[in-house]
Each structure stands twice: as structure tokens, then as C-alpha cells.
Amino acid sequence: MVKILILGGGFGGIRAALDLNKKLKNKILAGQAEITLVDKNSYHLFVPALYEVASAYGVKRDPFAVRLKKTICIPYSDIFSARSGPASGGEKINFVQAGVSAIDLENKQVATEGGEMLNYDYLVIALGSQAADFGISGAKEYAFQFKNLEDALLLNQKIEELIKEAAAGQRSQPIKIAVIGAGFTGIEIAAEFARCVQKLAKTCLPSEALAKESGIKGRCERIILLEAGPRILPAVSAGERDIILKRLTRLGVEVLEGAAVEEIGGNYIKLKNGKRLDTDLITWTAGIRLPDLLEKTLALPLTEKPARGGSASGGKKIKVNNGLELDGWPGVFAIGDNTEFIDPKTSRPIPALAYVAVDQGKIVAKNLLRLIGNKQLIEYRPFYSVWIAPVGGKYAVAHFKDGFNVIGFWGWIMREVVDFKYMLSILSFKKAVSILWQEITLFTKND
Length: 447
Known about the structure:
The structure is a single chain. This protein is an alpha/beta fold. The protein folds into two domains: 2-40 and 98-132 and 289-384, FAD/NAD(P)-binding domain (3-Layer(bba) Sandwich), CATH 3.50.50; 139-285, FAD/NAD(P)-binding domain, CATH 3.50.50.100. Helix 1 (11-24) runs parallel beside helix 11 (354-372) and helix 3 crosses helix 13 (429-443). Helix content is 34%, strand content 22%. Strand 15 (268-271) and strand 16 (276-278) form a beta hairpin.
């Protein structure tokens, strides 16, 4: 029995598992291969909608945030039951819910946090990334990270608490929310925070008497987006950047470029230029790094690229060849955020995008079968020139080939179409429609 082990159920890991399952049923290995996916959660997290959970407005509370979770947490049982097993004629995809504690490349074994030892013949590492703090003092302690469901739910709860304080007249200053890092994620969350707070702010000043008593005049919130570099989104065109900046300004978001952070405290941010910003809530979206587990894995080939600002924290990624196989380790592949792949056309690392991980998952599935069949690996040819940036409410900037853009409401429609297409690729039609409907009815309350 050929054992294929996939670590991580993100976009790349899921795609690799489903494609392998589909292809194996028509191969000579049908019935002789075992696919196992390992993930610490029982669900596949739809990360592109994570910012919507953090900023969701008007959701009836329950102790476990069930409604919010249903919109972005897709049970693996739903994914694999629709695509594997006897009904589809494919192999069975085994799922193991466990955190990974160690990877032994030499002996082809993976240890779980529960003490189980998993053997493999072929391995796919798709464990994603974790937030990079670049060695900035206080970043871990005082800034809300933005990498998983728990992070988003905590942010949502904190915003509601701040609004309630304002509504009760318990503060004399506007609510100050800072987002550090103006990449696509930072822009999405800052814009949606602005929409969320504008809705909630209607309860801030319910009467002139309370406004006079509290001392708050005009707007009761301030959203600040900080970027260490000279400009936000350096990879997009000047025209597209200008459109996004104007949209952020209309939403009331203050964008500070060239604002490198030196220190973060419980209620302040100190910039390298000496300026201090008082804040009530700080969200960190400034960068990603290799998970600690992978950085500590012996013999794992890693890049030596230093982190931004010269810090020793972060910066490393897994080295792979043109077939996404690890240098020096035949049969071991890596995909997604934990991997660095240099685009031969630009000599630069390709960006960490969801659809890029999906494409890598497809290539790895093909190469695993070719490797098993003693065939030469095919080369991965990256494609990442298309992007869609939601900028608050039913508004997005969608960039396609040859500088073609769809902006505003129709840009938002394009984003919904892309999300729905992805859901259809991993779920039954009925379940995909159900998730789309829940997302639209819940998250458009901010619009």
C-alpha cells in the first residue's frame, strides 16, 4: 500500500488531496494507495472571508458564535464525503484531526501532538504560515493577530465592547483602531472596520445630552492604516493604488505610508520617526513567517533570506525545485505560504495567495502520480497576475489581464463569483449555495 500523507488542510492541501483521489481511481494504483490528510482543526478555514468575521455587525450572539463560524468553517467531512469513497469510485481520503509535533524526513515519519506516529512513502507539507512580528517590541503581547478564526472572533468581540463603552458615555475620546500592515489583508480589514464602526456608531451618540456629557463631538471612531514602506500595495499599478486610496479616504480610513513601527504598547504605537499614536485596538497584518515546527525540523531545506528590518524573526521559507519537490528529498513536496518559489520570469518570490496555493496543489497531485509511475516531474509555472481587493461593503477592485479592471459593486460581484466557484470545486452544489447564502445575508449588514 502506497502511503501519501498531506500535512495541512488549507487551499493547497485540500486541492492536492481531492485531485489525487480523483486521479487514482483511473490509475493502476486504484485500491493500492492511501491518502491521509492531517489538520489540527475539524474544518477547512476559508481565509479570504476572515476579515468579514472580525467586522461582522448585527449578528445575534451565541456562546459559540455558530452563525459566524458556519460562513467560513467548512467541515472536512462535507468536503471528502462529496468527493471520495465508493459512491464516486475514488479512493478513501483519511482524515486525522491532530496537530503535528515533529517531522522526521530521514525515517519518513510524522508525529502528532496526541502521540500518534504516521508513516509515509510520499509527503506534502502544506502547513501554512504564522504571523511575523519582525522583532518589534510588544507586537506579540499587545497587537491582535489575524491568522485564524479565534483571532477574528476576538477582534469582533473587542470592537463591540468599545462601541458599547461609547454608547454608555464611558469615554470622552473617539474609538481609535489601528491596522498595521497595508497589504491586501490590511486594506480589507481596515475598510470593513470602517463600515462596521459606522453602523455601530449610530448608537454612540443617542442624544445631544449624552454627546455633551461624554465630550465626544462629530465622529466617534478613528481608523488608522499604517504601512512601513513608502506606499501601500507596491505590486499594483499607480492608478489602481489611487482608486483604493480614494475609497479608503471616503470610508474615513487614515492611511499613513512610511510609518514603520518601533514599539507597541497596551494603548499606543511608537513609530520609528518618533511619533506616538494612542490606540484602543491594534490589529497586526504586517507579514507572515514559517511555522515554528518547520523552522525546527532537522534537514528541512530553508532559505536564508533575512526578515524585514534585519530582524532574526521570520523570513525563512522551504526551498523547492521547479516541480515543488524539496531539494534533496525526493517524494517530499511543499506548497502554499510555507514555501518560497522564485518566478523564473521575474527572479522574485511569488506572492502568498489562495489561488496560487490551489494551483500548486494541482501540480503536486500530478507530480506525485508521475513520481510513483517513475516519470519525470512537470514544472510548475506560476500564475498570479489576477487579484481582487475588497475595500469595504459591496465594493472591490478586481484586476485581470492586460490592465483590465472591474471596480465598485461589479468588482464585489466578481469576488462573490470567484468564492462561489471555489466552493463548487470542493463541495456539492447544495452545500456551496448554502454557504454563499449565509455569507451574503450575514456579512452585507455592514453595507
